[in-house]
Amino acid sequence: MPSPFSKRTFAFLAELADNNDRVWFHANQGRYEEDVRNPALDFIDEFADRLVKISPHFVADARRVGGSLFRIQRDTRFAKDKTPYKTHTGMQFRHVATREDVHAPGFYLHIEPKACYAGVGLWRPATPDTAAIRARIAAEPAAWKQAAYGKRFTDVYDLDGDSLQRVPKGIDPEHPYAEDIKRKDFIAGTGLTERQVMADSFLDDYTDMCKRAAPFVEFLCTAVGLAF
Predict the structure, then answer these.
(1) Tens digit of pLDDT for each residue in 133-184?
(2) What is the average per-residue pLDDT within 14-42?
(3) CA of 201: how far to CAs of 2, 51, 80, 192, in Å?
(4) Are 109 and 208 contacting, i.e. CB atoms less than 8 angstroms apart?
(5) Rounded to 5 degrees, what angle do the CA atoms 134, 181, 179 make?
(6) Across-strand partners of 154?
């Protein structure tokens, strides 16, 4: 099927970056709806049935508010940067256990001029979840190797995120995955070109990326006690 994203999607976001104020946005809100928001919602809707086949515990929710699509408005209450709008559109396909105060592993898609990417995993998990993931890596290195270093995964994704300076107490510093046990974030990503995002094959391509990441996400879900 044709990708819902087009040159108009990227043109709007590029212009928004140059005109990041409420007056300009309100004057161009119709373009935002037609060229960015509606295409993203269409993509989410089309991806829903495919995601269920990857895991029935993740949701692609095409509601206009409160679903998989992030709001374009920035929360500037505690930010030094007071520009009111994001210059990208983001979609997060969340585990059903995810709530405002509970973060679970998930799949993410980021659309931005010259900076598109697909991401997976769990960013900055709560302290108990971090400990549980580290403990599982330490106890099951073969499972971690398959999840995070299997060829189908590493052909697409690179592990990313911040790490501790030292291996946590109780973990052997000589553990074969000591560097991964030091991680604060258990995430991976892959860059996408605008041409890839606009290609007729993009829905198939993104589905394949998520399938390749399924063992990694499943490892994290199991570690924190969630079904996959």
Answers:
(1) 999 999 999 999 999 999 999 999 999 999 999 999 989 999 999 999 999 9
(2) 98
(3) 7, 16, 40, 13
(4) no
(5) 170
(6) none
pLDDT tens for residues 183-202?
999 999 999 999 999 999 99
Record the tokens describing residue 55, joined without a space.
């895991």
Q: What confidence score (pLDDT) does residue 102 get?
A: 62
Spatial distance between the Cα atoms of 183 and 181, rounded to a whole number of angstroms = 5
| CATH number 3.30.930 is the correct assignment for the domain at 7-223 | yes
